[in-house]
Each structure stands twice: as structure tokens, then as C-alpha cells.
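Let's practice the habit of predicting before peeking. Look at the sequence and jot down your guess about where helices and strands might fall. Then scroll down.
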Amino acid sequence: NYPLGFGGLPPELGGDEQIKAYLAAPLTLYLGTADLHEKNLDMKPDAMRQGKTRFERGHACFAMAQTLAKERGWPFHWQLIEAPDVGHSAGKMFAHPQALKTFSIISDKPLKP
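Done guessing? Here is the structure:
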């Protein structure tokens, strides 16, 4: 349930039309394959049911959204992209070649992790 899922959403966020639009939006889940540690990770039981790591939770979120869209016959335009060997580091995630390819980042300055 909300805030960890689609169940029990407040009226202004919930409802089939809002969820359908969210699942149809071009959204990228960008996960580091080495994001496996517990630092600052929500360890409450509801969160742990989604996965033991951010990497597992990202995959679970994507699978749940994809399944819901398929069950309802809704469009689904999300993509799941992984940055191999990257942990919980925004700098390393966006400096990774996968980010440059996925997000078409164009800059005249090199990115530093």
C-alpha cells in the first residue's frame, strides 16, 4: 500500500485513470546492479516484502507495474536499465556509459563519479 505501492492511494493520486497514465508514461527505472547494501535502506517489514535491496526492489516495482498494465490491458512504456557493478552512488550511476546511452546526455564537460 501507499507510499510503498499503488494500494490505498489518496484520491488525488489514485484511481484507474491516474495509474493507467502513470504506467503509460515513458519512465526509466535505472538500477545499479551492485546496489545491494543496507545503508539508509528502509528495513520495515512492508518495505522488505518488496526486496532485500534497492536492486531487488527496483525489479519488483517494474514487474508489478508491468503485470498490472498487462492484466488491465493498459499501455506500458516503462523501461528497466541496469548499470553493471554500480552501487548506491548517483555520481557513478550518471557517469556510467549506460547512463550516457540511455538518457542521451550531451555535455562538453566530462562527468566525474
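How did you do? The chain has five helices and two strands.
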